[in-house]
Amino acid sequence: MRLREIVFGAAPAAAVRAAATLGVADALDDTPATAEDLAGRLGVEPKPLRRLLLTLESHGLFAETDDGMFVHTEMSRLLREDAPGSLHHISLWCTEPWTWQVWPRLAEAVRTGSGVFPDVFGKSFFDYLHSEGGESARVFDRAMTSSSRQAANDLAEFVDLTGVGSVVDIGGGQGFVLAGLLERDPALHGTLLDLPAVVANADSRLRDGGSLADRVRLLPGDCREAIPVRADLYIIKNILEWDDASTRATLRNVMAAAEPGARVLVIENLVDDSPSMRFTTAMDLLLLLNVGGAKHSKKSMTALMAEAGLELRDIRPVNSYLHAFQAVVPAR
């Protein structure tokens, strides 16, 4: 029966997408409601909605009471757009229409070791997303923003800033991690390094006129080409997963820029020794399909950092799905 459930795995994913698209979780507040009540609020047919709710209930989203009312569960609340730690946008992104077109090509990707996205859509993943993706591109941006905000909160509490006066967030996107660290330590200065279009849309706290702008340098650039920044701490989060050549180039550029004793903090989802294996291994396969990339194991990440010349000090979990590799640039 478990195998039967797995091969029907598209059904719960599609059910979650439907619930997020229709706004079912947002329509249900703290007051129990029948499927008919919810259907009236949403402008949908009550019988199909009840079938959708029963499917979701079997996976722990929503629960039906003995008198036929539906109530929230911990998971269904995460589909609300206003929920702390909301997964509303992530749920839509991971079930976007293009995903249903690449998953059936997984056997091909495994045979070749290459992504299939260009063959399916005629362009690389990011070229397609930003030229023809339309609403999918906007969903992606909202999902990445939501995910980054959540991770930034955890990292702001995790990172040890003892002895750190300057930090550079490499490939840091909108700079949520950097902003969180700067808010935590009013003496800290930071640099956000990312592609020009990304840095141009940095968090408002970091841009001119923002509350943290006087302690921030926004630096357009590609970390695979150069990292022209000296800092006490280098943070590299979730960007060393496209291909080993890019990872080697980025770590080599860190070593070229950093002084001995500088700390390097690499944050990654792991495909081993993680309480979120089903999640991280699924992301690993989607990376393969999209760009031919891969999530790391402890062994693979450790090996690449050692090859670059970094001295690894320890590996610790940040939360249930992120691990931190803490290293130091040795004396030369």
**Helical/strand content category:** alpha/beta
Biggest sheet overview:
7 strands, mixed
Task: Give the C-alpha Rg.
Answer: 22 Å
pLDDT < 50 runs, ≥5 residues: none
Helix content: 40-55%
What is the number of helical segments per DSSP (H or I, 4+ residues)?
Answer: 17
Q: What is the residue-mean pLDDT, rounded to a whole number? A: 93
How much of the sequence lies in strands comes to: 5-15%
Calculate the terminal CA-CA distance, rounded to whole Å.
59 Å
Work out the number of β strands: 9
Categorize the overall geometry: globular
Strand order of the largest sheet: 5-4-3-6-7-9-8
Strand-and-helix sequence, N→C? Answer: HHHHHEEHHHHHHHEHEHEEHEHHEE
Description:
- With 332 residues, the protein is an alpha/beta fold.
- 47% of the residues lie in helices and 13% in strands.
- The protein has 17 helices and 9 strands.
- It has helices at residues 2-7, 10-22, 24-27, 35-42, 46-57, 74-77, 88-93, 97-102, 106-112, 117-121, 125-132, 135-158, 176-184, 196-199, 244-257, 277-291, 298-308, and strands spanning 63-64, 70-71, 166-170, 189-194, 216-220, 233-237, 263-268, 311-317, 323-328.
- A 7-stranded mixed sheet has the order 5-4-3-6-7-9-8, with helices on both faces.
- The longest helix has 24 residues, at 135-158.
- The chain is globular and about 70 Å long.
- The protein starts with a helix and ends with a strand.
- 33% of the residues are buried.
- The model has no long low-confidence stretch (mean pLDDT 93).
